[in-house]
Specification:
By secondary structure, this protein is α/β, with parallel strands linked by helices. It has 2 domains: 173 residues, Flavin prenyltransferase-like (Rossmann fold); 201 residues, CoaB-like (Rossmann fold). Helix content is 35%, strand content 23%. The chain contains 14 helices and 21 strands. The strands form 6 sheets. It has an 8-stranded mixed sheet with strand order 12-11-8-13-16-17-19-20, sandwiched between helices. It has a 5-stranded parallel sheet with strand order 2-1-3-4-5, sandwiched between helices. Strands 6-7 form a two-stranded antiparallel sheet. The longest helix is centred in the C-terminal third of the chain and has 16 residues. It is elongated and about 80 Å long. 44% of the residues are buried. The structure holds cytidine-5'-triphosphate. The site of cytidine-5'-triphosphate has 15 residues, from helix 12 and strand 16. Cytidine-5'-triphosphate binds next to helix 12 and strand 16.
Length: 398
Amino acid sequence: MLSGKRILLIIGGGIAAYKSLDLIRRLRERGAAVTPVLTRAAEEFVTPLSVAALAGGKCYGHLFDLTDEAEMGHIELSRAADLVVVAPATADLMAKMAGGHADDLASTLLMATDKRVLIAPAMNVRMWLHRATQRNIATLRADDVRFVGPNEGDMACGEYGPGRMAEPLGIVAAIEAAMGDGPMAGRHVIVTSGPTHEPIDPVRYIANRSSGAQGTALARALRDLGARVTFVTGPASVPPPGGVEVVRVETAIEMLEAVKAALPAEAAVFAAAVADWRVTHASASKMKKDASGKAPALDFAENPDILATVAQMTPGRPKLVVGFAAETDDVIAHARAKRARKQCDWIVANDVRPATGIMGGTENAVTLITAEGAEEWPRLPKDEVARRLAAGIAAALG
Ligand code: CTP
């Protein structure tokens, strides 16, 4: 699948750089041409000679070379590739990318490129979890930089946690997906996400605690498998992923219209926490306090059920319709009943009692309810839940 593709591989200065030597071999085995660039720090870990030998061509260093500039300027080098891959992407290199620095060849290439960029982060677990790195990750994601890994496990520094670079074959799979060759290539998926805001008057609204984190992670994971994603989002606190079509809405009725407008789709995943009710007659002007001290009485109307509407569409029903069920008790029984009532294929059930810390948190513990039964997943980061779900969707679509 990578035959004839040109990959600009920037190797950062981390112990994981040794895995990049194997990555070069794996890519060349698949017919890709690899142009390697080493940062100054990378040269402390792997030698330009071994990198050049494995790549079967010139290895570019950290300095601008006047001969190279005459033959092939850094602009051209950054554009001649089909994809730019940074592996390992160190905390420092990610900070440079997020800040837009261009003080050596690698960072200048990353600034000058007009191609998709995929990074394989690798660093100590504390560095990965550091607020500065987490800020940079959010910035890079918003800039549509693709990520593969890091994985969780034992680290060279003796600690345990997220920060290990993805394995070469995992990076190869991510490269294939980033090139549009993933298992979901050419497939359209709609993802709803975030809360809805139902107006009371021009300044007040009814909302819920959904951050949009799980829906956002899911849209990103589907995109990473090559899907064309329409991401219909209410006012979420987590920014939408890059590389997807974002449709912003406020209310449940707007969300339903946006979903209908985005059809047809092969799959639709309803991760939004849609308000069940709206205020029947939202006031056109700001409601004022009554001199009598009487609180206003609000009338409510039920919102359309977007998931049920789409799941019961004929024709036009996506092949796979997935709903979420946020419950606080009898999670599985309620989720099963919801699946039957709404007529969707899968329900991703989760327990959102405040004590679980799931709503608004970074982890999720879900049970997947399908026609075959209930499958309980371990508590995992929302990104990992999203990756598993996206892989399941890809498998179900065949
Ligand atoms: N959903 C939707 N439109 C609605 C309400 C919910 O699309 N108006 C979707 C959600 O995105 C989610 C699923 O339906 O995928 C379950 O939502 P939930 O609010 O948990 O279920 P309810 O239908 O509200 O059932 P209950 O009030 O009994 O919990």
